Amino acid sequence: MKKKSSFFRDNFILITIAATLGYVGWKHLQRKQPKLVSLQAERVEKTLDLKKPVEVIQVQKRTEAVTLQRQVLAARLAINSRSFAPALVGQNLQMAFRLEPRPRACKDGDIDLIRRLSGENGKLLLTLEDDSETLVAHKKLVTRDLQSPVLFPIEFKQSDQTRIFKLTLCSDVGRKTCHGLQAFQFEQYSKKLGAGAAVKNQEAGHIFYSYGFALVKGEIQLFDGTNLSSRASYAKFLKTVGGNERQLNVIDETLAQQRKLGILPLAVDKHTIVLPLYVNDQDQCKISMNGGRP
């Protein structure tokens, strides 16, 4: 009987110890569980917090892009600028200029006055320079070449930076640039001829045609020389497209030359800018003088 009683006593002690350990473990898990739930909740909350700023930033970027586009458009309208996209070939942009005679009856035009000033075989130079006065391309001509359309293809590398270019037709004075020459006063020269003044070949050289444009993010922005927009309007345009003060000075100079030269508004033919030059159509003049009879 003593052995049996000892056996039950020992087992009871073991069961009590096991139950105590089990209870302690259960209480321990109960204390841990809320923390696990809390940690999971924190992770979910942080995940939601991270997603929210990303979405806000994306919306802000889209809003800023639209705002910038509107500012650029408004600035372009203020200076009466037109735009077109040149051809993209590899990493280069390709376009062309075409000097094109524009006949008119019984009145000398640009080509006639250039011929009188420089002679039929007078040497001319067609250049394209950027706002740092770097020569991009050039083409040698003689006066008689202007009687037919003159094509001047150009190519330059694509760039995210705004660049200002200047196309110039001038006397060829032995350099590959027109920089430093003065704009020719067509109207004044024409009046002198009409008054019977002697015509002299002026070796100092002149600029006969000048045109400026901008390259902005792969697009050509054309400047209208007949537009009397203020310097402030062009400054605002350059500010919206990341331009600078030096480029504004180039635009000022080019537009001043365009106004002195009294050039015709240009046209765009696909990837080609058409630059018209007046020429006297003598045959049409004779028909007009004969009352419409040839």
Q: Keywords, please?
A:
294 residues, 2 domains, elongated, 12 strands, 5-stranded mixed sheet, 28% strand, alpha+beta, 6 helices
On the 0 to 100 scale, the average pLDDT is 76
Number of helices: 6
Using only CA atoms, what is the Rg? 39 Å
**Number of extended strands:** 12
Portion in beta strands: 25-35%
Derived structural class? alpha+beta
Helicity level: 40-55%
Total number of distinct structural domains: 2
Distance between the termini: 153 Å
Order of helical and strand elements: HEEEHEEEEEHEEHHEEH
Biggest sheet record? 7 strands, mixed
User: Low-confidence spans: pLDDT under 50, at least 5 residues?
Assistant: 32-37
Shape: elongated
How would you describe the overall organization of this protein?
With 294 residues, the protein is α+β, with helices and mostly antiparallel strands. It has two domains: 78 residues; 207 residues, no CATH class. The strands form two sheets. Strands 1, 4, 5, 7, 8, 9 and 10 form a seven-stranded mixed beta sheet that branches. Strands 2, 3, 6, 11 and 12 form a five-stranded mixed beta sheet that branches. It contains six helices and twelve strands.
Give me a quick take on this structure.
The protein is α+β, with helices and mostly antiparallel strands and 294 residues long.
Task: Detail the topology: elements first, then pairings.
Elements: H1 2-78, E1 82-84, E2 87-89, E3 92-104, H2 110-118, E4 123-130, E5 135-142, E6 150-157, E7 163-171, E8 182-183, H3 186-194, E9 206-216, E10 219-222, H4 231-240, H5 245-261, E11 267-269, E12 272-280, H6 282-289
Parallel strand pairs: 3-12, 8-9
Antiparallel strand pairs: 1-10, 2-3, 3-6, 4-5, 4-7, 7-9, 9-10, 11-12
Helix pairs in contact: 1-4, 4-5
